[in-house]
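Hi,

Apologies if this is the wrong queue. I'm a grad student, and the batch job for ATP-dependent DNA helicase RecG from Bacillus chungangensis produced an output file that my downstream script rejects. I'm not sure whether the problem is my script or the file. Here is the sequence I used:
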Amino acid sequence: MTKSICDPITEIKGIGEETAANLAAMNIVTVGDLLEHFPYRYEDYRLRDLTEVKHEERVTVEGKVHSEPSLQFFGKKKSRLTIRLLVGRYLIKAVFFNQAYLKTTFSINDMITVSGKWDQHRQTITVSQYKSGSHQQMEEFESIYATKGKLTSKGIRRFIKEALKHYSQAIEENLPPYCLQTYQLLSRSEAFRSYHFPKNNEEVKQARRRFVYEEFLHFQLKMQALRKMEREHAAGSAKHYNLQKLKQFISTLPFPLTTAQKRTVNEICADLKAPFRMNRLLQGDVGSGKTVVSAIAIYASITAGYQGALMVPTEILAEQHAASFRSMLEPMGIKIALLTSSVKGKKRQEMLQGLQDGEIDCMIGTHALIQEDVSFQNLGLVITDEQHRFGVEQRRILKDKGLYPDTLFMTATPIPRTLAITAFGEMDVSIIDEMPAGRKPVETYWAKHEMLERVLQFMEKELRNGRQAYVICPLIEESDKLDVQNAIDVYEMLTTYYGSRYSVALMHGRLSSQDKDAAMQAFSANKTQILVATTVVEVGVNVPNATMMIIYDAERFGLAQLHQLRGRVGRGSDQSFCVLLANPKTAIGKERMRIMTETNDGFVLSERDLELRGPGDFFGKKQSGLPEFKVADMVHDYRALETARKDAIKFIHSESFWEQEDYAPLRNYLEKTGALSGNKLD
Ligand code: ADP
Ligand code: MG
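Support response: The file is valid. Your script probably expects a header line. Output copied below for reference.
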């Protein structure tokens, strides 16, 4: 029978049912799975010159046994066996613990190789590995594997050796010659051999390089295939917007668009005009001016005869957006409606009717907008603010309703490029990488909790100048009572501290939406000067007179989130301040606070956040949805990721990819993952 790497692992000598079950617990079922169980590190057994070895370092030496072994016992089971070993010109000691049986193994003048920790003062190696004979008979690197249950790293290593012995002919190349040649990559079978049994560091590096590229290429092919499918099969419509009106609208704005805003508007308009469905991510740091871009897009779509919808994560934000859309678009004769949970009964009925009749041009609200009983006459564009809170699910709902509008996702979380092309690889991305002129960066300080008194005095100075302040308390789970209590305590403390001089309000997620609105409105109108809040104010809230923010326990937030929060101040023309109250315990915690005080650039922060916390934590637990790679690391291998992405785009759009034999393995891969039938989007 011909061997295939899809054979079950029980085909490998030494793997019985019990071992197979243990391996299965690690998702190793086939020979191929076993081969892809890569070592996570290597033990280095290369010979070293003792003069170069530092105290307590690991070392491997070969030498001649120079004395009869001497054996000492401590208690019943513990023993120490010492032999003198002549290594080159040096006479050293080799000590074996609890291996009394070795006493008869070594004779004078035997050549042996030992490995272990070097004690420079005692000129002694505490042996952890040994081998009779000279070093040549020993492998220089030992691969070390993750294990489970009764499995050992050595056992796994033996199985892999066995697998490579019998299956190396069965390992088929899955990359086209073009890639192997262009990047000088090892063949798949060579790469397995080198990764598991390398002769030197270079072999490990080359093997890794090959698998990193393979993983990224597969992943990007899947993304690009999905994207192509979307374009070709998603029923979109070409929207012939009125450029004249659009230009006129832009000229009514109180400010000129930044270059970055203009570029993004053009990118969006090109998508609107194209016959395929837009699927675009719009990234822009807090305050970069995404709202006006979204208003222009919606207006464009309306001039082409379609309705638009703007979805936001909270009702507070919906109200704010409705207000700013009204001030911009109503003068253009556009009818805007705001649908929130407080719109009820007859009013709601009328609104839904207006939407169905096409009398309402633009609907703003939370995600309830596209669910429930809402139907549009002719929905052409859906814009979602703070993309990471919605996503795939929302598109499914629209599709279920038979709606195929253009979609634009806006996010103020500057997603590092490597994550953006990983998590949103099937989307087009526009970036607003420029701030409107005249913004002053928020001055940020880090203070220990002990300094609270001074921080409050500082805050009072701002208040005395007629300014307002946010005091943010951490809230990890909206339902966490402890966290809410935290905010209440701070609220009470501040009420006592400022007495009748300033009025303090409290806002957290457990309040009813009326109470939340009331608190927000009072703050907006400067009826309260201090707003104690949990992270509900994180997104979008706009009160330009607020120039001061204190963030409690800042070390509990991610950098990206701190940056979002901080973006609530610095929205006017005056200097704003942000104080991070934190007593971080770890070096990384301190580093994070320091970074916050040093930069106002959201992209820099998010890159650092990614480095410090890793991709899994970047988006928070709820929506990581990031792919897991066996070998590749999105952060450190980003160059390979870019290369693989470019190649994937090129392949997907070339005829040869779909026809030539060279690319058959990649096509098969796509077939298997379902990317070609577009299943992934449902
Ligand atoms: P975000 O991208 O965080 O949603 P906004 O759209 O809320 O930012 O814009 C922040 C502020 O900047 C708003 O007050 C808006 O009116 C203003 N703004 C937007 N674009 C410009 C511009 N080109 N020039 C000056 N101010 C602008
Ligand atoms: Mg915004």
